[in-house]
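Margin note: ligand = pyridoxal-5'-phosphate.
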Amino acid sequence: MSTHPQLNAAVEPIPQFDLCAQYAAIGAEIRTAVERVLSTQQFVLGREGAALEEEIAAPCGVAYGVGVASGTDALILALRACGVRSGDEVLLPTSTFVATGSAVSALGATPVFTDVRPETYNLDPAELERRITPRTRAVIAVHLYGLPADMDSIVAFAKSRQLPLIEDCAQAIGAVYKGRRVGSFGDAACLSFYPTKNLGAYGDAGMVITNSQQLAERLRTLRNHGQTAKYLSSEPGWNSRLDEMQAAILRVKLRHLADWQGSRRSHAAEYTRLLEQVPGVMPPHEPEGCEHVYHQYTIRCERRDALQQHLARRKIGSTVYYPHPLHLQPLYSHLGHKAGDFPHAERAAQEVLSLPMYPELRKDQIARVVEAIAEFVKC
Ligand SMILES: Cc1ncc(COP(=O)(O)O)c(C=O)c1O
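Resulting structure:
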């Protein structure tokens, strides 16, 4: 057996996220909520979903929520409701999860990628002017890792060009930009409740939030086969509804979200404090006026792959979000991009590493992660 404490078989693994720890704390509340749904035997478009829509929209600072089957569907339906069609172009950052782009492609439209800012990994607003064409029909701003994008500039661009703006808030529910929550800046905003998200369901679920009554009505139609009345469809739609079981579970979790976000923020502060002593590692940047919700705590390191292997040997989980920017995905090879087209995004893809981050993470675990990083940097 190794004499190194972190190589010892008895050392407790530190996963990158830990849903079991959360369930251990709230399991009884969840089971009560599930039992409530089972006793009503109403599973689709019922009271739980309607209540959740209100309970999410209000704190996000918008009037309407429309529950859908996933964050991806939220994007597809929001784009469609904003008028995006086959042959259109949609501007979006190349550093994001593939769903941001594939939602555009699902409508037969073309994603037009933009580079990101190297210190925030979010869309560089200067790129929008460079990439706009007469076929541009919408803009998607992604708040990657839970950090708000530069909304002043992005909103100003969209307004000046009269383009609908959609916020991809999949990773950023509750994040604040200059005193306002993300999701309240665009014409519509999309949430994902994928299980590992800051507010995660026990399966797939998502929501579109908006201040526009007209858009909300359209979205309710689109998620339900284009039906404007029972068995009367005026356009092709989808079956994309957030079910009652997931809604009930999410309503329980929503009551804990503010505490969980607080824990994430204090873990991030602790990581950043300890990492100040570690050269060659860049902690995440939180620009003035932004409140990051740390869906991910993402560092940068030139020897990232070796660092990740080192952490794995010390039983510390970490993940690369994302190793391939969208413009270099095989899915988009037909768009003809090549390495070097978006240098900031490409460099980030080689250097970023997300460390363990979940509300139940302990201070001693954070210290162990940083110790392991410091040990790697020295050798
Ligand atoms: C930035 C971003 N957009 C969209 C999605 C899609 O959400 P879902 O997995 O709920 O379809 C995700 C989920 O991982 C995401 O991280």
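The chain is about 40% helix and 15% strand.
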